[in-house]
Amino acid sequence: MTLRAVIAGSGSALPKRRVSNEQLAETVDTSDEWIVERTGIKFRHIADDNETTASLGTEAARSALAAAGIDAGEIDLIVLATSTPNQTFPASATIIQTNLGIGDCTAFDVQAVCSGFLYALSVADNMLRGGAAKTALVIGSETFSRILDWEDRGTCVLFGDGAGAVVLKAEEGDSGVLASKLHADGRHNQLLYVDGGPSTTGTVGKLRMRGREVFRHAVVNLVAVMNEALEAAGLTSDDVDWVIPHQANRRILDATARKLGLAEDKVIITVDEHANTSAASIPLALDTAVRDGRIKRGDLLVLEAMGGGFTWGASVVRY
Ligand code: UT7
What is the domain partition of the chain in residue ranges? Predict the structure, then answer.
């Protein structure tokens, strides 16, 4: 028998405030028609002052623990994927640890922008299989609304806030994370970045993106890494029940599925309701489809993402 990191439960959390394209168009020079046609986005949730990356991450983690039927005291590893932590340090994972009343454990943040959840999942998977932990919380939580330039219509309409989480348990068997492949290519740093930081400007900065160029790289990289991860698991796209993509743009999701020869209805899509929530988008989409009954135990899932860096990756998971 093989020791694997099995998804014991999932959860998610969204800020209370839900903003439509029409509402945005009241203050930004844009339209519902443009946003829907170019991106598929209809709504996004925007955090109020009292809703933070740590508070949303805590809520998502609580809901994942409840779904898994696991007491917070059993958690011995917390990995939070985020690019919008509450503070530069300490890691927001430690704030979530305290909020959940978890005692001594390992807790840290991982920063790989939109691929962050896959990086966090892979780190936790390796730690569980290597024996460094037994029960992990892997969380993606973001408040990108805080780093958006609301004067830049090319970016501010695309993003939203939210959080998703999974509880991973080290268990013997055929279920769990079967393979992960991660990549980075820093030559593309300047296509998607934040123009501030503690070691440079001393400010938090705002998100900047050359969308068309990012789009061009996305489909090619995502198709390649999904095939690579499936091959590592000894599987092909014919074996896939559900693709759970990072939700950046409906057109990227459709083009990626087409190139893999996958039917559109095998792709979980939440970009219409959540917009791009960066590291939170995959666990948010996963939890949505688990709760609405589409994803069932035994299904083969492929999780995939690409984001700033560039970073990109894919994980193959038997749910
Ligand atoms: O999560 C990380 C990964 N990120 C991504 O994957 C994002 C990838 N990129 C994209 O999703 C798309 O490139 C965008 C949605 C960002 C943009 O779509 P596009 O079809 O590439 O549009 P564009 O940037 O080339 O802009 C086309 C036109 C421009 O006007 P002109 O120059 O043709 O007159 C823009 O000024 O659309 C205009 N435009 C807008 N119009 C109305 C740009 N933003 C808006 C807007 N509302 N919000």
Answer: 3-173, 177-318
- Tell me: domain 177-318, CATH 3.40.47.10, correct? yes
Rounded to the nearest angstrom, the distance between the alpha carbon of 215 and the centre of ligand 1 is 10
Q: Catalytic site residue 246?
A: yes
18-23: long-range contacts (C-beta < 8 A, 24 or more apart)? 18/43, 18/44, 18/45, 19/43, 19/44, 19/45, 19/46, 21/157
The CATH classification number of 3-173 equals 3.40.47.10
Is the shortest distance between the CB of 214 and ligand 1 below 6 Å? yes
How far is the C-alpha of 97 from the C-alpha of 110, rounded, in Å? 15
Catalytic status, residue 276: yes
Q: What is the pLDDT of residues 170-188, one digit of tens each?
A: 999 999 999 999 999 999 9
Q: Is 133 helix (H, G, I), strand (E, B) or coil?
A: coil
Q: Annotated catalytic, 114?
A: yes
Q: pLDDT tens across 137-159, in order?
A: 999 999 999 999 999 999 999 99
HSE value, Cβ hemisphere, 13 Å, CA-based, for 94 = 8
Give the pLDDT confidence of 65-114 residue by residue, as tens digits: 999 999 999 999 999 999 999 999 999 999 999 999 999 999 999 999 99
- DSSP conformational letter for 125: H
Q: Could you check whether 3-173 and 177-318 share the same CATH topology?
A: yes
Nearest atom of ligand 1 to the alpha carbon of 307: 2
Which of 192, 212, 252 maximizes ligand 1 atoms within 8 Å of its Cβ, making it the mutation to test the pocket? 212
| CA pair distance 152, 166, nearest whole angstrom | 34
Token pair of 292, please?
């609405």
